Amino acid sequence: MQAITVISPVQRYHPPMQSTLFGMAIIILAGIGWRLLLGGRTADTVRGHLAQAVYQVFLPALVVHVLWQTPVNLNAARIPVVAAACVLLTLLLAALVYGNGRLVRAFMGQHPVRPAIGALLLAAAFGNFTYLGLPVLTQTFGPWSQFVAIQFDLLAGTPLLFTVGVSVARHYGHAAGGTAFTGLVRVPAVWAAAAGLGLSFLSVPQPAWLNESLTTLGSAVVPLMLLSVGMAMRWQAGWAARIPVLFPALVIQLALMPLIAWGMCQIVGMPERLRPPVLVEAAMPSMVLGLVLCDRFRLDAGLYAEAVTLSTALSMLTLPVWLAMLG
């Protein structure tokens, strides 16, 4: 009698995670090396230009292309619901841990407490859903999963960042000009998402020449995002003494958020095929874009950068664990 091989959803849709992460780690390490070669200030300038190119041109092209081809249905609507629950619940957990400031005072002495709390709350609740999530999902599950990362971030993560996240930054930092809504409507990818969903809903055919152009532009997103992540990673003197302060944020971001995503997938009835990429998306490290908010609202940008660096490095170990559990 012939043996029957049972193939899990994860095995069906992704190559070996170790080789995927190794290839991505090479590009991130290239970014780190470029930062060391150029020096911190020059590297930040170059990274800013790269990020702007992705932010203004390449990512919107990819978003339109992917969402235009993604059917608008109830299954897709479940993804932003799970994403919103992940962000809001982890933000609540982080507020319970850091809100009273005792942990910061215990390990950082006379360091300004409120800017540190604000940075830690953002680091714990807002993952690198697009800049790292999109490359990870693309390389792990295939191009079909890109819409998971895009909807997770642009339909939940980014709107919450520019509303709830900005409110947190204002509260613990210094008020800056503009409103949360103004910041949100200035995000090109949000408009691209609205356009892509609208074209999909109306069943507008995508011309072959436009499909080819958007594919070419979108193909630049993954390597440039990974390079930008590497160039954003940095350390400050005395970082080891701050690990006890950073540790809860790392646990919340890399361990508790995926657990919340798993529970929410059960609650909303997420289709089996979408559960692995949704959980992996929730397991992303701290968001690079948070550095911009820290600078704008005078939060502790150095502490936040350390959270990005540590969480990104640790995610290379935790992501394979999550996928192994899914398998």
Question: Secondary-structure map with pairings?
Answer:
Elements: H1 9-13, H2 17-38, H3 40-68, H4 74-98, H5 102-108, H6 113-125, H7 133-141, H8 146-172, H9 180-185, H10 188-201, H11 208-218, H12 221-232, H13 243-268, H14 275-282, H15 290-296, H16 301-326
Provide a short characterization of the protein structure:
This protein has 327 residues and is mainly alpha-helical. It is built from 16 helices and no strands.
The assigned structural class equals mainly alpha
Nearest-angstrom radius of gyration? 19 Å
Please give the count of helices.
16
- Counting DSSP E segments of at least 2 residues, the number of strands comes to 0
Corresponding CATH architecture:
Up-down Bundle
**Roughly what is the average pLDDT, rounded to an integer?**
83
Approximately what portion of the residues adopt beta-strand conformation?
under 5%
Number of domains: 1
Written as H for each helix and E for each strand, in order along the chain, the element string is: HHHHHHHHHHHHHHHH
Helix content: over 70%
Low-confidence stretches: 1-13
C-alpha geometry: globular
Largest sheet: none
Highest CATH level, the class? Mainly Alpha
Would you tell me which CATH topology applies? Na+/H+ antiporter like fold
> How far apart are the termini?
26 Å
How would you explain this protein's 3D organization?
- With 327 residues, this protein is mainly alpha-helical.
- The chain has helices at 9-13, 17-38, 40-68, 74-98, 102-108, 113-125, 133-141, 146-172, 180-185, 188-201, 208-218, 221-232, 243-268, 275-282, 290-296, 301-326.
- It has one domain: Na+/H+ antiporter like fold (Up-down Bundle), CATH 1.20.1530.
- It contains 16 helices and no strands.
- α3 packs parallel to α10 and α7 runs antiparallel to α8 (146-172).
- The longest helix has 29 residues, at 40-68.
